[in-house]
Automatic annotation (TrEMBL):
Keywords: Cytoplasm. Belongs to the SVF1 family. Residues 216-380 form the Svf1-like C-terminal domain. It comes from the Eukaryota. It comes from Monosporascus ibericus. Residues 55-214 form the Svf1-like N-terminal domain. GO terms for biological process: response to oxidative stress. It holds the Pfam family Svf1. GO terms for cellular component: cytoplasm. This is Survival factor 1. It is found in: Cytoplasm.
Length: 380
């Protein structure tokens, strides 16, 4: 039944892959053994805009001094070279938890890049990198519910893990068929506003940028994700971890950064995640985390050992996103049966309890309170 649809879907999203095993993936962790991380220049912030299947995004996380939090995201998607789409999304969690969050996601038209591919443009939308490579300006008027005029500026270097940040996929890793890369601006200052139907919201505060490239079908690259973004007055802690499907040996790939103004404390393959308590989501059977422990273990440039931990309850989730909510029901059923895909994202930002970063650098012990945003994503 629906064989024609299954075949069409397989051509686009791909069916379940064979078991290639862990030898068919080269984690960025391998490069990070010799080169823990590399600081980037303006030239390294170009959009790849691949002609083959990919999902590329720039995600700006804003932690305002007034307690508001926002995510601004440009997503560039290419489906097997047949169709390219771009989307601009705005999500705002208000300081007043009694107010519902604001969510706007709009398809973009007339998309283009600057000549050097460091800036992105579309009708009523622009994400521009400054000449010195230190500042992004994000402007959008494509949805009157959230008119964006925000600027973020580096206060710590931009980095990738290892030499180039890439994890490679393929049975011939000298000629890989897929890749994954993340570049981070771990510690930034933000200024500007997002004008909503209730009026402007000031986003003066701190910020973080992730430029991500999944150079293959996303559900083939990863079955699960964990993400942490923590900002305190003095420190930033970033964690990005994904687990491959069994086709690549259920390999865990992790990248982390600890930074302060003007300096990367440590970065690279230094992180681990434990969901210390979970509960079964009655709607989809995923193990929704309720408590977690996030750790960073590395060394400074001069060899001092570095350890950091954030742990505790995640409190009530901010949101649970059914990634396929807009997909027609029969297509969703086919996707689930064909490739075992039922992606959900759980988002948290604890406020009732104190979120502390406990940091040890050499013999120095530090504990600092801050704001944390974290996601747990289950795909297949």
């Amino acid at each position: 039944m629906f064989n024609w649809a299954k075949q069409t879907l397989a051509n686009v999203v791909g069916t379940e892959e064979p078991i290639y095993g862990p030898s068919a993936i080269k984690s960025v962790a391998q490069d990070a053994k010799d080169t823990p991380y590399t600081e980037l220049t303006r030239n390294d912030m170009k959009w790849a805009a691949l002609d083959s299947t990919c999902v590329e995004s720039q995600s700006f996380y804003l932690t305002a001094d007034n307690g508001n939090f926002a995510l601004l995201q440009v997503i560039y998607s290419n489906v097997v070279g047949i169709r390219t789409t771009c989307q601009f999304s705005v999500k705002i969690f208000r300081a007043d938890p009694s107010k519902p969050h604001i969510w706007c996601s709009t398809p973009l038209n007339d998309t283009d890049f600057s000549e050097d591919k460091t800036s992105f443009y579309a009708a009523d939308c622009a994400v521009e990198l400054s000449e010195d490579g230190k500042t992004y300006t994000i402007k959008s008027m494509n949805d009157q519910r959230a008119i964006v005029n925000v600027k973020i500026t580096q206060t710590a270097p931009c980095i990738v893990a290892g030499k180039d940040g890439k994890t490679l996929f393929g049975t011939d890793l000298s000629n890989p068929w897929g890749s994954m890369r993340h570049a981070f601006w771990p510690r930034c200052v933000a200024e500007g506003t997002i004008v909503t139907e209730e009026g402007p919201i000031d986003f003066k505060g701190k910020a973080f940028l992730s430029h991500a490239l999944q150079g293959m079908k996303p559900h083939h690259a990863a079955s699960r994700w964990n993400f942490v973004y923590f900002q305190s007055p003095s420190y930033s802690a970033i964690l990005m971890e994904f687990t491959t499907p069994p086709s690549y040996g259920s390999t865990v790939v992790s990248v982390g950064v600890l930074a302060k103004d003007g300096e990367i404390i440590t970065a690279g393959d230094i992180t681990s995640v434990q969901h210390t308590k979970t509960k079964k989501d009655s709607e989809n059977d995923w193990p929704e985390p309720t408590e977690a422990k996030f750790t960073w273990t590395g060394a400074t440039k001069d060899g001092k050992p570095v350890e950091a931990v954030i742990e505790g309850p995640l409190e009530d989730k901010l949101d649970r996103i059914d990634v396929m909510a807009e997909v027609p029901g029969f297509v969703k059923t086919i996707v689930a049966s064909a490739v075992g895909t039922k992606p959900y994202i759980y988002q948290y930002s604890p406020r009732k309890t104190t979120v502390n970063l406990k940091l040890k650098i050499g013999d120095q012990e530090i504990s600092e309170e801050g704001r944390m945003f974290t996601e747990a994503t289950f795909i297949s």
